Amino acid sequence: MRRAHVAAVIGVLLLLGTVVAAGCSSSVEVPNVRRLSLAEAKRALAERNLKAEVSSELLDDQVPKGYVVEQKPAAGEIVDGDTVVSLAISAGSSGVTVPSVVGKDVEQATSELNSLGLQVRVLKTTSSEPSGTVISQSPGAGATATPDSKVDLTVAANLGTTEPTATPTPAPSTSSLVSGLVVIDPGHQARGNNEPEPIGPGSSETKPKVASGATGVVTRRPEYATNLEISLKLRSYLQSRNVKVMMVRTSNDVNISNSERAQFANRAHADLFVRIHCDSSENSGVNGIRTFYPPNGGWTTAISAKSELAATIVQQRAASSSHLKNLGTNVHTNQTGFNWSKVPVILVECGFFSNPSDDRLLNSPSSQQAIAKGIGQGVVEYLRRTK
Ligand SMILES: [Zn+2]
């Protein structure tokens, strides 16, 4: 009895010792601070007794300027307290890759560069090349330039002078350019996340953070991949019209909830938040494209009217640009991605993955291009009417 009693006491003491040791341990799990502002990231790290250090700035068109792009150690790693977490901060949009325009006519070169949002400065010099030919360019082809930055073109001009003269940049030749910032959210991601999140700020009602989406009835392709393909084509179209674009994701292997996606658009102060999805129905006969907007009530009262205008224009353009049936627009209540948005927002359901004909169209590159172009035309028209 007595020996057993002593053993039990020792056992309890050992157990207590273990618990106390665990409680005193300075090991902490590194939180995920990617996509937070630097101040928010520092606060989140300080709460776990971790230190923050900015190690670099990166051009990134997915993450707003001043927000965290990368962190090291990664989220979830167990480290000692006081560990320094080094952060790479976004320096803003990476803009565009400068194309080669050497050998082209200056007018053609200028319009090509302007269409990418780049300014042009022309320096004339005598040359044996035909007058008006671009002889050299700076920065060179392949360089990454931020929107609005300038490309110097040295152009052959048989003027009898060797002195380079700067001439004013010709105005963009096309009237289809418009200013504005659009955030594109390619719906879903490779793996859904069923953790709950509030459907709106302060709400006790929750929904899963993000689903993986539908599967094509014929193509068997996953919706998240198609959504990204259409979104990237939409980005190219908008950038060619001078619109600045930020993407919620450019990879399928991400974990970003619907509320986080909306808050990304809020932080970017987007003129329009465009969510790209494909539809699904129990009835494989249902087909067509439709666009949703948030209701005039609750969280989205302030953004409903502008969102409805955007939805109406985009739906009309997208339906007529594609071979998809026009199902019109509709209000959608209780969408987490709408309720958290403070900027005008639309969700384009580009067609039905459950319908064989729509599924083929949605997964054909040329048809994706037509859909993206139509959505882009609608977005440009909306920006022109509201800015
Ligand atoms: Zn979807």
Concise synopsis of the structure shown:
This protein folds into three domains: 27-90, Trypsin Inhibitor V, Chain A; 96-167, Trypsin Inhibitor V, Chain A (2-Layer Sandwich); 181-386, 3-Layer(aba) Sandwich (Aminopeptidase). Helices cover 32% and strands 26% of the residues.
Walk me through this protein's architecture.
- The protein is an alpha/beta fold.
- It folds into 3 domains: 64 residues, 2-Layer Sandwich (Trypsin Inhibitor V, Chain A); 72 residues, Trypsin Inhibitor V, Chain A, CATH 3.30.10.20; 206 residues, 3-Layer(aba) Sandwich (Aminopeptidase).
- 32% of the residues lie in helices and 26% in strands.
- The chain has a 6-stranded mixed beta sheet with strand order 15-12-16-19-17-18, sandwiched between helices. Strands 8-10-7-11 form a 4-stranded mixed beta sheet, with helices on one face.
- Strand 17, helix 6 and strand 18 form a beta-alpha-beta unit.
- Helix 4 packs across helix 9.
- The longest helix is centred in the first third of the chain and has 23 residues.
- The chain is globular and about 100 Å long.
- About 8% of the residues have low confidence.
- Bound molecules: zinc ion.
- The site of zinc ion has 5 residues, from loops.
Relevant terms:
alpha/beta, binds zinc ion, Trypsin Inhibitor V, Chain A, six-stranded mixed β-sheet, 19 strands, 9 helices, Aminopeptidase, 3 domains, 387 residues, 26% strand, single chain, four-stranded mixed β-sheet
